[in-house]
Design a protein that fits this description.
Elements (H helix, E strand, L loop, with lengths): L8 E6 L3 E7 L6 E8 L3 H14 L4 E6 L12 H16 L3 E5 L3 H11 L9 H17 L13
Parallel strand pairs: 1-4, 4-5
Antiparallel strand pairs: 1-2, 2-3
Length: about 150
């Protein structure tokens, strides 16, 4: 039995100070971390993300969003911040995007950082993106996640 190959998926862990970025293999089996982008301006952040998207010949972007916050409370949540950023990202890039639950990704990234023997002072945003993307890939294989929104052929 042969595995179907696809263009890789890129994953972004959105943070106030940094963006963590991960990518998966063409079999959509395994995620790996590729970058931590220290945020500066939206234009510069999007430029760096576009470069990674093109470099890895990516088909779509998975973006982690906190789903455990209370919605409808009238209080601005981190999820609201991510949604606004995603809208701007899509407007600027036109890339197909899917939001995926990032719950527990920071905790799991800390555990992974320890296993990888990262220094406690090193950022783990890229590992959080890896955890989010791996969670999505596992759910996709189990039939528990929607297929990624792939670009249409023109």
């Amino acid at each position: 039995m042969s595995l179907a190959l696809h263009p890789p998926l890129l994953c972004i862990d959105h943070g106030i100070k940094r963006l963590g970025v991960a990518v998966c293999d063409r079999a959509w089996m395994t995620a790996r971390e590729i970058a931590v982008i220290k945020r500066t301006t939206r234009e510069d952040d999007f430029h760096k993300l576009r470069a990674l998207y093109e470099q890895h010949k990516t088909a779509a972007v998975i973006i982690g969003i906190p789903s455990h916050e209370f919605e409808g409370t009238g209080v601005h949540t981190q999820a609201d911040t991510v949604r606004v950023w995603v809208e701007r990202f899509i407007e600027a890039t036109g890339y197909p995007v899917l939001l995926w639950d990032e719950q527990f990704s920071s905790h799991d990234a800390k555990v992974l950082a320890t296993r990888l023997r990262r220094k406690p002072t090193e950022p783990i945003d890229d590992l959080a993106a890896r955890v989010i993307l791996q969670s999505y890939l596992d759910a996709l294989r189990d039939g528990l996640a929607p297929a990624p929104p792939l670009p249409t052929q023109e």
